[in-house]
Amino acid sequence: MNDTVFNRRSFLSSGLLAGCSIAASPLVTPVSFAATRGENRLVVIILRGGMDGLDFLRPPNSEMMTRLRPTLSQAAPSEMMLAEGFTLHPGCAPLYELWQAGELDIVQAVSTPYRHKRSHFDGQDLLEAGTATLGGAGESDGWLNRMLQHMPGGEMVTAYAIGADPMLLSRGAAEVESWSPDVNFVLSSQGARLMQLTMERDPEMARSLAQAFALASDAPGGGVIEVDDSEVMGDFDEMMAAQMTAKGKSAGSAHQRVASFAAAQLREEARVACFSLGGFDTHARQAKTLQRPLERLSDSLLTLKSELGAEVWGKTTVLAMTEFGRTVAENGSKGTDHGTGGSMILAGGALRGGRLLGQWPGLAEEDLFERRDLMPTDDVRRYAGWAIRESFGLSRQALETAVFPGMSLGDSPALLS
Fold first, then answer.
1. Bridge partners of 276?
2. CA-CA distance, 174 to 389, in Å (whole number)?
3. 341 pLDDT band (50/70/90 cuts)?
4. Domain boundaries, the chain
């Protein structure tokens, strides 16, 4: 074997790890994070599938709800009273502590400007683009990336996106690095030896690679490393072994690892993170199928709080939003179909929490959107805009013309304490 030592650039641009997505990980490549004046943090979670806001935030039980949702209105009653007779879905029971602590707000009857067609693909693109329509300016980049380009006092313009592929939310002129908790790779003894040669004169990259191996090895069904100890020796192996020991094999499910990894970055220089949670498309047996994704949402929020620590959590705002709500009436499969108005979730120690925000439109047939969906009475972009303004000080003009073009911020909901 030729003992040529590669530098970082040649390592990343070569085919040494062909078929291995670890080369795209910020644990291997040099990474900078979005930095700005102040200490506030922003986390954006996209809830993919169209979360049923009427099941997450349950309106007061009524004859109308019983008639429109005969199965769902009888399933798993909740004792977690929020305000005005609204209750929280039992799958989100851990979040009730956040509500009581003033660290959770829920916006009711809210949506993007998307109407009529109810396509996941179009709905998610509009949500992440932050625009009013598809096909216009801004469709190819995301509102979070555009926000980073206006961060006051920030010399670094690199976003940090967590996921297998860059989300539209963070795509744009500001460079984005990605990380996935489910990296799958197999490294032979020869491959490990080649990698060791690459790392011999670069201790910093060796440490990053060891961390990447450890994280990937926690992934279900992934991170298989086949190494002959007699062939591979030295600091690289010692660091990798130390990382594996430190991480162990019980790092939790993928969504918990994502939240944990985000918290680790936010404790340091990062000020912005985004990731997504799936499973909210509940066309059938919703009483059962919605339970698990809501538990994952609760896990993620509580993992962020726990691992950020009290000081950083107290400076953090989390926005959890979905592409659209679901029909008011349940369908023949005891689920719900794609709708319009839904719920938006705000969490974090920075919030003036414990509030239901937005205007309730009612459930009478004449009050529904197209006589089938919860009528949207507010725009998710407006609440995201105010969270950005209060966290980072962006101007109203930048938010209304660049970050969310064509959106009106309106009056302040006074989100942060």
1. 46
2. 19
3. very high
4. 8-32+183-247, 41-181+252-403
Q: Tell me the CA distances in angstroms from 50 to 115, 201, 243, one per residue in order.
A: 13, 49, 38
For residue 232, pLDDT over 90 is answered with no
Select, from the ranges 13-27, 36-50, 220-234, 277-291, the one with the highest average predicted confidence (pLDDT).
277-291
Residues 281, 152: Cα–Cα separation, whole Å: 38
Give the helix, strand, coil percentages of the chain, each rounded to 5: 40, 15, 45
Three-class secondary structure of residue 177 per DSSP: strand
* Helix/strand/coil (H/E/C) assignment for every residue in 308-361: HHHHHHCCEEEEEEECCCEECCCCCCECCCECCCEEEEEECCCECCCEEECCCC
pLDDT value of position 223: 37
> For residue range 322-332, what is the model confidence (pLDDT) as tens digits?
999 999 999 99
Nearest Cα neighbor of 168 from 113, 123, 111, 124 is 124
Task: Give dist(CA 4, CA 7) in Å, integer.
Answer: 10
How does DSSP classify residue 96? H
Could you tell me which of 44, 120, 121 has the C-alpha nearest to residue 275? 44
Q: Which residues touch 17 (CB under 8 Å, ≥6 apart)?
A: 23, 185
What pLDDT was estimated at residue 29?
Answer: 28
**In terms of CATH architecture, what is 41-181+252-403?**
3-Layer(aba) Sandwich (3.40)
